[in-house]
């Protein structure tokens, strides 16, 4: 488990004070995948450096399975860091070493014997689907295969936490999905807690159980994926259930209303029923359907014509179990797909 409490990181640039992290608190239970998402400059890189204690926080605490990294020193801190596996955007392999030697390198550093090291390397290469590639060199592998090696290396010390920093941003879509499937499969490995730093909503949709939005060094939204998506007026919900194409409200004769239906309600003709109830045509001008964490979500944008009370439309939709709001009242109603 990862537990972060009231974490601050303050930099001083001359007389100017920059709060890169401003009271960040989060918990990632063992056996789960948590996503941290945000714009460039939101504080994601600083959070990574602090979680690994490569950059010491100004204040606050970081605990890995109850061990306080922020108060640990020298040998105790080195031992605690071994409980964190790191996967980077680039695999950062040693070109002069074989794949097996790259994976076994962390075990060399802590003095694991050759026989045990070889056994562990074989196990890990099999786990990531590269059982026959141990004698190859990084230059002989594709980008996706190199990233698999990076994941195997990160697991070599049997960590309690796997920290993935933009693990798929340098990969093509098909390889991205393969790597995400592999990371997702690790959530049940010895109670591993996985934290994924990303700017890609596809990553969050594919593998995360929960997600936090980091903005200006603060976590402004956080929760289980199915909970944050249900907050129609939230930025994460708008990003996860964005509606293509973007609709310009100024060219619509009337007003726009966003409708969110969940689970069994997502398959019901709520718009058609409401249209009949209010006696006016309600045109669907955009929509998306997502299956997230085992739940179906339908997000529709409808045009309410001039002369029809939009509140009557909203009340009818609410009575059918949907959530409905005026589009103009929502955060980022343009359906942003990417928070980069």
UniProtKB/TrEMBL annotation:
Gene Ontology molecular functions: ATP binding; ATP hydrolysis activity
Ranges where the ABC transporter domain occurs: 2-241
Keywords assigned by UniProt, alphabetized: Amino-acid transport, ATP-binding, Cell membrane, Membrane, Nucleotide-binding, Translocase, Transport
Name under which the protein is recorded: ATP-binding cassette domain-containing protein
GO biological process terms on file: amino acid transport
PANTHER family in the cross-refs: AMINO ACID IMPORT ATP-BINDING PROTEIN, METHIONINE IMPORT ATP-BINDING PROTEIN METN
PROSITE patterns found in the cross-reference section: ABC_TRANSPORTER_1 (PS00211), ABC_TRANSPORTER_2 (PS50893)
SMART domains noted in UniProt: AAA (SM00382), NIL (SM00930)
SUPFAM superfamilies in the record: ACT-like (SSF55021), P-loop containing nucleoside triphosphate hydrolases (SSF52540)
One Pfam family hit: NIL
Keyword set includes Nucleotide-binding: yes
Superkingdom of the source species: Bacteria
């Amino acid at each position: 488990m990862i537990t972060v409490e009231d974490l601050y990181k303050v930099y001083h640039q001359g007389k100017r004070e920059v709060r890169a992290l401003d009271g960040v608190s989060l918990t990632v239970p063992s056996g789960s995948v948590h996503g941290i998402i945000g714009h460039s400059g939101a504080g994601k890189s600083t959070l990574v450096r602090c979680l690994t204690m490569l950059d010491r926080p100004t204040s606050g605490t970081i605990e890995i399975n109850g061990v306080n990294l922020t108060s640990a020193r020298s040998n105790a801190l080195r031992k605690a860091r071994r409980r964190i596996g790191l996967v980077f955007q680039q695999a950062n392999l040693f070109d002069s070493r074989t794949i097996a030697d790259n994976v076994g390198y962390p075990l060399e550093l802590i003095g694991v014997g050759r026989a045990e090291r070889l056994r562990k390397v074989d196990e890990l290469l099999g786990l990531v689907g590269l059982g026959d590639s141990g004698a190859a060199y990084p230059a002989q592998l594709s980008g996706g295969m190199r990233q698999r090696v990076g994941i195997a290396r990160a697991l070599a010390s049997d960590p309690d936490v796997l920290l993935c920093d933009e693990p798929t941003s340098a990969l093509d879509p098909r390889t991205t999905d393969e790597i995400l499937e592999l990371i997702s499969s690790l959530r049940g490995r010895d109670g591993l807690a996985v934290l994924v730093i990303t700017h890609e909503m596809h990553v969050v949709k594919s593998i995360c159980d929960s997600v936090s939005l980091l903005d200006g060094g603060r976590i402004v939204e956080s929760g289980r994926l199915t909970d944050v998506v249900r907050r129609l007026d939230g930025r994460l919900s708008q990003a996860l259930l964005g509606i293509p194409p973007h609709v310009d409200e100024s060219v619509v004769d009337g007003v726009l209303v966003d409708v969110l239906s969940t689970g069994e309600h997502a398959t019901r003709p709520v718009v058609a029923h409401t249209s009949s109830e209010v006696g006016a045509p309600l045109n669907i001008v955009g929509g998306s359907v997502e299956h997230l964490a085992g739940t179906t979500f339908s997000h529709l944008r409808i045009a309410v014509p001039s002369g029809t009370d939009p509140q009557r439309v909203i009340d009818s939709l609410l009575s059918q179990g949907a959530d409905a709001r005026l589009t103009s009242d929502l955060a980022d109603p343009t359906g942003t797909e990417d928070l980069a």
